TrEMBL record:
It is found in: Endomembrane system. The chain crosses the membrane at residues 156-177, 183-204, 216-234. It is a multi-pass membrane protein. Keywords: Membrane, Transmembrane, Transmembrane helix. GO terms for biological process: intracellular manganese ion homeostasis. One of its GO terms (molecular function) is manganese ion transmembrane transporter activity. Pfam families: VIT1. It comes from the Bacteria. This is Predicted Fe2+/Mn2+ transporter, VIT1/CCC1 family.
Amino acid sequence: MPDHGHSHQEVAARISAPPGTGVLRDAVLGAIDGSVTTFAIVAGVAGAGLPPFVIVVLGLANVLADGFSMAAAAYSGSRAEKDNFRRIRKIEERHIKDYPLGEWREARAILAQKGLSGRVLDEATDAITKNHDRWIALMMEGEYGLGGISPHPLRAAVTTFLSFLVAGMVPLLPFILSLDSAFTLSAWMTMASFFTIGALKSIWSLSPWWRSACETLVIGGAAAAIAYGVGSLFNF
């Protein structure tokens, strides 16, 4: 079964509005970091023998503050990428205006690397360079490796924060609900969260779901074990 249709209408719609990278990276990073950092606090505080109230307070503070910090970082990083994209585009616009022949030669060289040659190469170069936007898009992709879709800073920030918030609350739930054996439940729930995040991540990967799940579980478990060990050093 094909991943997508190839009728004339489907191809035209897909090529005219490519989806870009989406929010997968931001969601995965936010969820993993939310689980790891929050459970690291839970494990560290529990290892130090402090009361559950302290775990809840520090955990909630981490979820909100660190989640916002990650969201701000995602926003700033995406905004920097977007600004850099615009800066390079302005450079190419100026070069095409001031040095059209040189830019035509660059466009021709880019198309030659794609396998065109001879008369077809010249005709393709002429056809693309007659359209200003297509010319710039070719130069951005061929000369700088930048696609035509710029990042979405706000979307990256919101996705990162929400995924961090949801995943980060998992280790705290047993303590918020004052359940018996709260730390043990928190540990199992967090490990399940790591496993689930890894398994879901495999949907967009070529790796088997169990390998991705186990990889994420090992990474998160190692961070939790380190935090618990450090906290235990202060349990007098």
